[in-house]
Amino acid sequence: MLVAPSILSANFLKLEEEIKSICDAGADLIHIDIMDGHFVPNLTFGPVVLQNIDKICQKPLDIHLMVENVPFFVDLFAPLKPKYISVHIEETKHLHRVIQQIRNYGISPAVVLNPHTSQENLKYIIKDIDMVLLMSVNPGFGGQKFIPNVIEKIKRLKELILLENPQCLIEVDGGVSDKNILDLKNSGVDIVVAGSYIFSQKDYKQAILSLKQ
Predict the structure, then answer these.
(1) Which residues are catalytic?
(2) I want to staple 169 with a disulfide (CB 3.0 to 4.6 A). Which of 108, 131, 160, 197 is the partner?
(3) Where along the chain is substrate bound (predicted)?
């Protein structure tokens, strides 16, 4: 199980220190939630805040776009050279075109599904992407409770992936903790995003280990 701490839950007054700490604690990726105040009722940060992140942390970036005007934001954040850029199927009008836009930057494209969105919507695009991000809370805010019926969606998505694109990864974001990590692993999840669970604990290393083990 790979762990991607979400810096949305970090202390922004000491962001550099927080990022260094989670990297030293064993984070596999750094998850970055980009919100525009339109697609979701919240605002986070732009590329200026993150442009020097590679100088303090060599971990791959995992950028999750919760925005309208998706192609514009892909171009805006692609210079950060993240490992993944994830876009919401609910907002992306020309999904295949945006996937190619991301891949043309040398970045792995991923598609996000909100809790109410069926995995069946991925049937004709699954072969073109490297990862599916399933939201296990409604997007926009950290610290929410895990929605249990996402487990069944993970299992069905895993069946689709094994049939159509076995190399595609499954990532889950929202309410992840040591209480549900075993169910997530057994359902076929490859990467978990954890924000408040990790950053609310004094020992980041132990928090990350509790998810990996």
Answers:
(1) 33, 173
(2) 131
(3) 6, 64, 140-143, 173-175, 195-196
